[in-house]
Amino acid sequence: MSGDRLRNVGPKSAAWLRQVGIRTPEDLVAAGAVGAFMKVKRAGFKPSLNLLYSLEGALLGCHWQQVPEERRQVMAAEVEQLSALLPDPKKKRPGGPVTYSEGPAMQREGVEEERGPELSFGFDDPYGGSEGGGDFGGDSGHDGGGGRDD
């Protein structure tokens, strides 16, 4: 949090909050303790429930350990319910298709395409050579893999 130091919020927690857009006490009030906690969690940080209780304590103006147990349980249940809706970070979703779009810089009218020399990296050559036909001055049996050819 910038300038205004909130009770219960240490430097690491303050950095997390800043990174998710909560920079002032007013931002914290607007998000609420659970909302702010979930923003931190969604951003990929791994906050403990102590952060949740600290945020609630900051909103109530008390030490985080003075947040009533009943309120802690309600907030923890909310976080658990909301966390179940988050994607599992261990299961990566497959990326979408790679597409190419031409922007305004590529669509100049009346100008022929200017291309440099076409490069070959040997992917179409079954022998792995370049169009020039030679190797690059090394051992012609070396495949670049660094392994041994026993």
Structure commentary:
This protein has helices at 11-19, 25-42, 49-60, 69-84. The protein contains 4 helices and no strands. The protein is globular and about 55 Å long. It has a domain at 11-84: 5' to 3' exonuclease, C-terminal subdomain (DNA polymerase, domain 1). Mean pLDDT is 75; it is low at 119-123 and 129-150. The relative contact order is 0.09. It has 150 residues and is mostly helical. Helix 2 packs antiparallel against helix 3 (49-60).
Describe how the helices and strands are arranged.
Layout: H1 11-19, H2 25-42, H3 49-60, H4 69-84
Helix pairs in contact: 2-3, 2-4
Q: How many helices does DSSP assign?
A: 4
User: Strand pairing plus helix content: what structural class?
Assistant: mainly alpha
| Rg calc | 28 Å
Please state roughly what percent of the residues sit in beta strands, choosing from under 5%, 5-15%, 15-25%, 25-35%, 35-45% or over 45%.
under 5%
User: Which of globular, elongated, flat, extended, rod-shaped describes the shape?
Assistant: globular
Ends apart, CA distance between termini:
61 Å
Q: Please give the oligomerization state of what you see.
A: single chain
- Major sheet size, sense and barrel closure: none
**Strands, total number:** 0
Task: Quickly give the CATH architecture of the domain at 11-84.
Answer: Orthogonal Bundle
DSSP helix fraction: 25-40%
Let me know the average pLDDT: 75
- CATH homologous superfamily heading of the domain at 11-84: 5' to 3' exonuclease, C-terminal subdomain
Parts with pLDDT < 50 across at least 5 consecutive residues: 119-123, 129-150
Which H/E pattern describes the elements? HHHH
CATH topology of the domain at 11-84: DNA polymerase, domain 1
Q: So what's the CATH class of the domain at 11-84?
A: Mainly Alpha
